[in-house]
Amino acid sequence: MSFEKFNTDADVTAFARQHSPLFSDQDRLQVEEIGDGNINFVYRVFSDSNSLIVKQALPYIRVIGEGWPLSQDRIRIECEALKLAAKNCQSVVPEVYGFAAEQCAIVMQDIGAYGSLRSALIERQKLPLVAEGIGCFLADTLFYTSDLYLGSIEKKALVQQFINPDLCKISEEVFFWDPYCDHERNNVNGLLRSDAEQLWQDVVLKREVARLKAKFLNQAEALLHADLHSGSVFANQSGIKVIDPEFAFVGPIGFDIGLIIANYLLNLSGQANLPGEQTERSDYQQWLLASIETIWDTFDQRFRDHIQQETQEPSLKLPEYIDWYMQELLADSLGYAGTEMIRRTIGVAHVDDVESISDPKKRADSERLSLVLGQILIKDRAGFRNIDQLVVRVRELMYCR
Amino acid sequence: MSFEKFNTDADVTAFARQHSPLFSDQDRLQVEEIGDGNINFVYRVFSDSNSLIVKQALPYIRVIGEGWPLSQDRIRIECEALKLAAKNCQSVVPEVYGFAAEQCAIVMQDIGAYGSLRSALIERQKLPLVAEGIGCFLADTLFYTSDLYLGSIEKKALVQQFINPDLCKISEEVFFWDPYCDHERNNVNGLLRSDAEQLWQDVVLKREVARLKAKFLNQAEALLHADLHSGSVFANQSGIKVIDPEFAFVGPIGFDIGLIIANYLLNLSGQANLPGEQTERSDYQQWLLASIETIWDTFDQRFRDHIQQETQEPSLKLPEYIDWYMQELLADSLGYAGTEMIRRTIGVAHVDDVESISDPKKRADSERLSLVLGQILIKDRAGFRNIDQLVVRVRELMYCR
Question: CATH number, domain at A21?
């Protein structure tokens, strides 16, 4: 394959000009690299009046190098997932201007007017439309790629289009295996060591994680974003943009819902020890719980509306089945939320919501809360009959500490 | 596409010669058509000393004609499924000698020394090695194509290789929809009409069938035969051969297990009213129940042995997970067995085990037994803790009539 990495700004601007109509020949273009730098290269290309993003996928993980090869097919998947999400959930993802398979690169809308939701949560911003926006994004992207909307022949074509083995394998390992044993990739706070060791002995927990893993491996319910943490959501006063669906594949719906809920709960754990006034932090924790309720309730209501109005499949639209199904979806979502909380606490990749707490003791306190919550979510997931019961349980846990 | 149906015996023999080394140029070959004639053309080609089978798939359903087109990709799928089964479960499927995509035709081993299991059951033959052979076939073909054996990247390639939308769609409709409403395709004995009408009103049953349908649509557990009724199993004193995997796709394991168990139970229902001595028929019913136990127990033991000896996946081989999983598999299997019993009783395609009972009243009696059993299997499937409990329940039902 004749793949060539962009080496100079001129490579990037030439590509940007070729694949979008945004710039005139007279525009003088500048380039800055803005990627977080882990996996891909991300460039912002701008003139005096316009800007766009160029994202290039290398045949390996950028920070590790050629020693960890990674299929470049992920950039095709990201591009096609963005286009499908744009169709199913208007204006919530950046518009794709162009794509070139040879260069493994996408040219897309610059969403610089939005900031990372993770940073907003750490700063305790109360952006008004985010939780509702996330609920709508989940309902729309998941419903329109599920059997509740697609015919079975279209659905199978979608499964085939988004088979994504390399990136699924990363999740299979970092979510469902590493954190449940003393794995060399893990990153465990020394003060949390005995908690982690206890967790590694818990066979009931491990059985339930195996069930969630089997669903992740097997259950092709809908096209997932599949990496929907709070760093993949960008937000401002007017709404959200969701980026980076390179992990997209047809999998269990609860995985997307669970990941974003977990990231709110991870922030809640962090707020117990982040800098700032106690009252302000407690107040924000309540706001986070209210946001989780809004995410689920918005999703639940909108998803059910879609079913009522658009599901043709006669056996699956039976109200008795839908009630059972939504209950199961809540349990799945909470289970996957638990796996995200645990893997972000003792696995390889932590989150700044907790990791930025500089005092190791205080950090361990927040980490312990995440770990306990994660285990409850996984083991008791089928017991929560609605999202309120989760909120009540989290409050109990916060007050009992 | 330049596809050409074989029109003359000479077309068939030329193809057979070209794609197998079985015949010498001196051999005089004869052709007989032996297919059941519903979907494909099946020919037996034979000399004085040798024989083989040629199977050709048309781009439509043979008995219906060009009005019901059907993807010819099914013959590639059948060929690849046969080869994979031959690798995973030696000598239980006919050997494939050759395949030509252009002609949509396979040349394979003649298994004329074996007879249809359905006929053997109707004649109350007690072939000694059949149930054990079926249990081994299930354990081997299902284990070696599941996540318990394959790495996740290989598994996803398998899913892609066996995406089979046209044939899955047929099953989705005839198993999981038609029999649960007053569908024009249904074939309901007039004397059973009120039983069927009652069934169509049962929302608990329909909810459970929707759950089984959703698993059939979504759950890519292992490569299924996916049409494992007793007409797909051929048997004699020395064992079995399994044929016709054109419906193969990666789906829920319980579907294969359930179908073959259901076909034993359908025969059991038939034996209540087939010709012959009462004692002989009752005795055979007990033999059928013992066979069902043998099928499950052989499968269960061998599948667990495979896991113990060959599963590398660390989270899925946890004993606590495996116990949960085998329990779930039994419930799935019984649920799918129930759908097969119901669809073979009031759906479009009946089975000779019951259909050959000429007196409509007697036939209705057997059909009613199938229908009741089918509903128990679906609604109570999670309550059966082992296969013995199923056998006890069936006996109760037989004696209480």
Answer: 3.30.200.20
Interchain contact, A153 vs B165, CB within 8 Å? yes
Shortest alpha-carbon distance between residue A332 and chain B (Å)? 15
Give how many domains chain A has, as a whole number: 2
User: Do the chains contact at B217 and A166, CB–CB below 8 Å?
Assistant: no
Q: In this complex, which of B160, B181, B321 lies closest to A163 when CB atoms are compared?
A: B160
Residues A105 and A61 in one domain: yes
Contact A213, A190 (CB under 8 A): no
Which among B156, B177, B324 has the least Cβ separation from residue A211? B324
| Residue A2 is assigned to a structural domain of this protein | no
User: Is A89:A141 a contact under the CB 8 Å cutoff?
Assistant: yes
Closest partner CB to A172 (pick from B152, B172, B177): B152
**Given an 8 Å threshold on Cβ–Cβ distance, is B214 in contact with A318?**
no
Predicted confidence (pLDDT) per residue in A256-303, tens digit: 999 999 999 999 999 999 999 999 999 999 999 999 999 999 999 999
* Domain C-terminal end among B109, B128, B163: B109
Residue of A nearest to B164 (CA): A156
Q: Does the ipTM surpass 0.90?
A: yes
Residues A355 and A208 in one domain: yes
Pairing of β B65-69 and β B60-61: antiparallel
Give the model's confidence band at B37: pLDDT under 50 very low, under 70 low, under 90 confident, else very high.
Answer: low
Residue B167 lies in a domain: yes
* Average pLDDT, rounded, for chain A: 95
Domain coverage including residue B42: 9-109
- As separate numbers, helices (DSSP H) first and strands (DSSP E) second, chain B gives 14, 12
Same domain, A248 and A321: yes
Residues B164 and B67 in one domain: no
At position B23, the amino acid (one-letter code) is F
Q: Position of tokens 């034993």?
A: B264
Q: Which two tokens mark B361?
A: 């009243």
- Read off the pLDDT of residues B306-362 as tens digits, 9 standing for 90 and up: 999 999 999 999 999 999 999 999 999 999 999 999 999 999 999 999 999 999 999
Instruction: Determine the Cα angle at A27 with ends A24 and A31, to 5°.
Output: 115
In a shared domain, residues A129 and A85: no
Q: Hey, what are B84's tokens?
A: 């994979």
Residues of B in contact with A207 (CB under 8 A): 318, 320-321, 324
For residues A248 and A162, is the Cβ–Cβ distance under 8 A?
A: yes
Distance from CA of B176 to the nearest CA of A (A): 8
Nearest-angstrom CA–CA distance, B163 and A156: 7
Phi then psi for residue B104, to 5 deg, are: 50, 50
**Are B245 and B78 contacting, i.e. CB atoms less than 8 angstroms apart?**
yes
Percent of chain A that is helix, strand, coil (3-state, to 5): 55, 10, 30
Domain boundary among B109, B143, B174: B109
The beta strands (E) that lie in B36-104 are given as 41-46, 51-56, 60-61, 65-69, 96-100
Residue B20 lies in a domain: yes
In a domain? residue B4: no
Residue A303 has a CB neighbour count (10 Å cut-off) of 25
Residues B159, B176 share a domain? yes
Q: How far apart are CA A319 and CA A37, in angstroms?
A: 47
Residue A71 and residue A133 share a domain:
no
